[in-house]
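Async update (no meeting this week)

Hi team, since we skipped the sync, here's where things stand on the single-chain job. The sequence we agreed to prioritize is pasted below, unchanged from the tracker. I ran it this morning and attached the output directly underneath so nobody has to dig for it. Comments welcome in thread, and please keep replies under the output.
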Amino acid sequence: MTLTRLAELTADPTASFVLIARDGADTVELLSGDVTDVELLADIPLDAGGIAREVFAMVPYRQVRERGFVAQDDGAPLRCVVVDEHLHLPTADLLAQLPDAAVPLRDGGFDIADDEYAAIVERVIADEIGRGEGANFVIRRDYTAEIDVDDRTAALTWFRALLLHERGAYWTFAVVTPGHIAVGASPEAHVVARDGIVTMNPISGTFRHPAGGATKETLVGFLSSTKETEELFMVVDEELKMMSAVCSDGGRITGPHLKEMSRLTHTEYMLRGRSRFDPRDILRETMFAPTVTGSPMQNACAVIRRHETKPRGYYSGVAALFTPNDDGGHDLDAPILIRTVYLRDGSLNVPVGATLVRHSDPRGEVSETHGKAAGVLGAIGAIDRDGEAGTRSDPDAPGERRSLAGDPEVAALLSSRNARLADFWLNPQGEDLTGPFAGRSALVVDAEDRFTTMLAHQLRHLGLDVTISGWSAVQDAAVDDADLVVAGPGPGDPRDAGSPRIARMREIVARRLDAGAPLLAVCLSHQILAHRLGIELAPLASPHQGLQKSVPVFGEDASIGFYNTFTARVSPGTTDAAGAQVSADAASGDVYALRGDRFASIQGHLESILSRDGIRTLERLVEHALT
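Output:
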């Protein structure tokens, strides 16, 4: 009966349906129902006439505008399938029914040539990361081709191939709706909300299996890479910003683990926290994964807008399944839309991206996009499974089935990473907020870096009653009324007086200093404070994006994470400047911290997972500012 139902849906060119195979399941879920397109996440029709409905939604990248971020608008709809029927099909029986004839490609290749993409990588590193616009950015290119087979037939053929030839995918899926068909195998659950627990799964670092498959030796080399390790830490920081916005306990880190697929292996963490938010609000606050956008998120969207030549469609958005639960609400399961083929009118499109960081090698990032496209196209059999998308000169074998995650040396390398991280985010935090500053209020001014949500969470653990306000919205009265103002971090050049954001942060810092009111300044605002005190500002020779250092902070060495391109700088050996005490690098004079009459500042991010001594140092600086 269930397989007959799939045949009926397939035969009806107007029918819409979704196939989902979850990792480890021995059945494939078939969802069918009417399609409705809505404008906003809040409009997703979870209830009809007081009855909770199951809804599957395809959320395009352009939806990030709901957070006030920029995106090219290609009109890709926020498409909902209101589920009338949800069946479970035995995988073995389904495989026998799905079409299996090869679907050859014509005129395949990347829309952006390798040399052009490498040049884009160079520009992003120099003009964006090199000028303080952020820590990492994901720029995508598309593999495109034509087919001579009906789109629906191709989608079902490739869904079958993914079931057989891909492994380790969180969801393997096919979405068939009028004008929009997608089939893919996403490795990454972006956000899951179930039984009051929110889970996020940041995955980063990409190891392409060599010809003949991955070996312990080649995997150990990948796990020992500083670039790959720091890349993962940076996306964990970015997703903890989101977790701190929706979870009362901020989120706890577990891992790292290996995500092993047929041609690629990634490293991943799991983040978990408690939340009472509506699942649509959780989805909005977590749009979208830094692994496919960058950080800080708001500026990453601006960088994508500047450097990508066309809109993203559904790439880096999510597929979201809202399922009614026993509490009268809905659970949410939302994997990222990556490793996906999009079909329309005989054309296919496979968007892939590389995460660009300060260590990136342009040719290496070009190679990574080839590997990711090959991972999809090889798994579906659209190219030789031993070949590579775009070039056949570098064969890429599917890889052996034996897992390497259990190897003692591999396990030790993975677990050793946590020795660098802050216990605050590794250990259960609880919700006891009776800290040393209970009864005091703090206003955190967000300068377009949501590290402020993590910072606010730590301040609450110190007992403060915290409010976050954006730089453009905060009123002078609020700045005046707070017991403590925390001027937050943000991207950009602190010397740029022409920036409305920099100008407003200067006003806020000056207002608190002139009033002799308690102030804590972080990163960008630390630089602005230093400038106010007459201390020189200068670009670093090499950006400190995602860098961990042990630095002196007023008599104590502290292990702190840094995300800065600019620095305040004094003459080496200087300990006082313009009435402020200075903690600076003995050799370079780079200023790590300042403190004076009712103010303190820090260049690093005490809230970062890289700040092992973050909460201790934060308490010291807050205490100084308040007393």
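Quick observations from my side:
The CA atoms of residues 136 and 295 lie 6 Å apart.
The domain at 430-626 is CATH 3.40.50.880 (Rossmann fold).
Reply here if anything looks off.
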